[in-house]
Amino acid sequence: MTLKNEALLVDRAKGLYGRQAFESAWDEIVNRYEERMRMVAYGIVRRQCVAKEITQHAFMSAMESIDSFQFGNFSGWLRLITRNLAVN
């Protein structure tokens, strides 16, 4: 994904283009990053069911704090959220 496309996806996820764009952005984010995030969590907790739960919480946390995301490495930001939840 190019930086321009990722920036547009983040703007849509922030709700800057309306409700429908917001929902489709989060569908795309989940489809794109869920497996990677689950693998990060699994690498720490070593239990699939716990890793899946952590991933769900990470998406909820990301959705709640998306407005604080500054342009940069979005997938890295998601991995950091996931890792922090898995460690705790």
UniProtKB/TrEMBL annotation:
All residue ranges annotated as the RNA polymerase sigma-70 region domain in the record: 30-87
Pfam family, one: Sigma70_r2
Gene3D superfamilies named among the record's database cross-references: 1.10.1740.10
Transmembrane segments: none
One annotated GO molecular function: DNA binding
Protein origin, superkingdom: Bacteria
Record's signal peptide: none
Assigned keywords, A-Z: DNA-binding, Sigma factor, Transcription, Transcription regulation
InterPro entries (alphabetical): RNA_pol_sigma-70-like (IPR039425), RNA_pol_sigma70_r2 (IPR007627), RNA_pol_sigma_r2 (IPR013325)
GO biological process terms, semicolon-separated: DNA-templated transcription initiation
Protein name according to UniProt: RNA polymerase sigma-70 factor
Organism of origin: Candidatus Uhrbacteria bacterium GW2011_GWD2_52_7
Classification lineage: Bacteria, Candidatus Uhriibacteriota
